[in-house]
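User: Some background: our group keeps a shared notebook of sequences we're curious about, and every so often someone picks one and asks for a predicted structure to add to the entry. Today it's my turn. The entry only has the sequence so far, pasted here. Could you supply the structure so I can complete it?
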Amino acid sequence: MAYRIVESCVNCWACEPLCPSNAIQATRPHFVIDAGACTECDGAYADPQCASICPVEGAILDGAGVPVNPPGSLTGIPPERLAQAMAEIRAR
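Assistant: Of course. Here's the predicted structure to add to the notebook entry:
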C-alpha cells in the first residue's frame, strides 16, 4: 500500500528529493504521492524516506490511513497537553 500526503503538508520540499522511487510530486495545494510508484522504500531503506524527513506531524499517512509521524512524535508534546496549552492561550 502506498503512502499518502494530506492537507497538513506545508510544501517544504524536504521529502521530494529523498524519494527513491520518484513518487512524490509537487502540486497544489500540497505535495502528492503517486500510489502506483510508491514502494514505501521497501527493500531500499529501513524507514520510509518521506516520513523520516517530514517536519509536520500527521502530514504523511500509511496505506491504512494512520499518520506515520503521529501527533506528539516529533515535538514530544502529548496531544492532550498541546490542546490544553492552546486552550489556555485562546482564553487570554
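Suggested note for the entry: The domain at 1-92 is CATH 3.30.70.20 (Alpha-Beta Plaits). The chain has a mean pLDDT of 94.
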